[in-house]
Amino acid sequence: MRTYMCLICGWIYDEAEGCPEEGIAPGTKWEDVPPNWVCPECGARKEDFEMMEV
Fold first, then answer.
1. The Rubredoxin-like domain covers which part of the protein (predicted)?
2. Residue 47: which residues within 8 A CB-CB, separation 6 or more?
3. Residues 6+ apart with CB under 8 A from 36
């Protein structure tokens, strides 16, 4: 599982946790997140996220 950070506000998407409040189940891989999904904090697009090295 990987994590991705919003380059605009710093919000973290963790594949293991998903984003249930946005309808994305835990365990959802980043590539399976819908292309029209936006950051729940700032509304940034999926393209504005970058994978984080852990």
1. 1-52
2. none
3. none
Q: Residue 4's closest CA among 23, 53, 12?
A: 12
* Helix, strand, or coil (residue 29): coil
Per DSSP, 53 falls in state P
- Give tens-digit pLDDT for 3-45: 999 999 999 999 999 999 999 999 999 999 999 999 999 999 9
User: Nearest Cα to 18, choosing from 10, 7, 43, 34?
Assistant: 34
Give the pLDDT of residue 53: 79
N-term to C-term CA, the chain: 10
